[in-house]
Amino acid sequence: MAQSIQSLIAASVNHVLRRRYPDNYCSLCHAHAIVGANLISVVLDRVYRPVAGLALIDCGGGFIRLTDNTAFANPAGGAFHCWIESADPAIVEREVVDLTFRHNREYARKNGIEWLREAPPDYLWGPYRKLVIKGQPERLPAAFAPGQIWLHETDEGWDWMTRHMAEHINAYVALTAEALQELHRRLPAASALLEPALPRRRARPRPGSAPASAPGLAC
Known about the structure:
Blueprint: H1 5-20, H2 29-44, E1 48-58, E2 63-66, E3 81-86, E4 95-98, H3 104-110, E5 124-127, H4 128-131, E6 132-133, E7 149-153, H5 155-167, H6 169-186
Parallel strand pairs: 6-7
Antiparallel strand pairs: 1-2, 1-3, 1-7, 3-4, 4-5
Helix pairs in contact: 1-2, 1-6, 2-6
């Protein structure tokens, strides 16, 4: 069965970050958001941006609470979340994309939280109004529908994301190039989808072109 371009993008970003950071890839929501937003913007020729803030993820018997807004000012990081949103006037209805959703069960277990739900989907990608639970954290429903999440961007998250991308721009350019090449590898041989985005020789990035350790904070 042919894969959608959304699933191919999600798989390509996941593959590159898992290969680069095998010990903590499931905590690198910021890297997934930045590389993912870059790749989606290039491939779909639309503007998508990485977003930083707070999140609640339903585990079935409780929640993963990524709600520490003070973590953005803490050099050690903390419990916050990053995701992707569309920011293009051509996209009438805002989209949300979370490429780390596949890691929720693993993340919960690593942090001592029991996971009682079905396995999460590999990613979330769709209309914001359908995927994001609305309301204040203390007044949310006891359980979310499958494939839903509570998200809240904060000013502190915006400031941190802006600084973080500026400080690590070269690392993210290299990681995005790797993800683009990985996506090209996964496309059918006859596909010309990436022709405008790839260099003529389609040379693979040289080993060591991306950092050996994760850039910046892990959420």
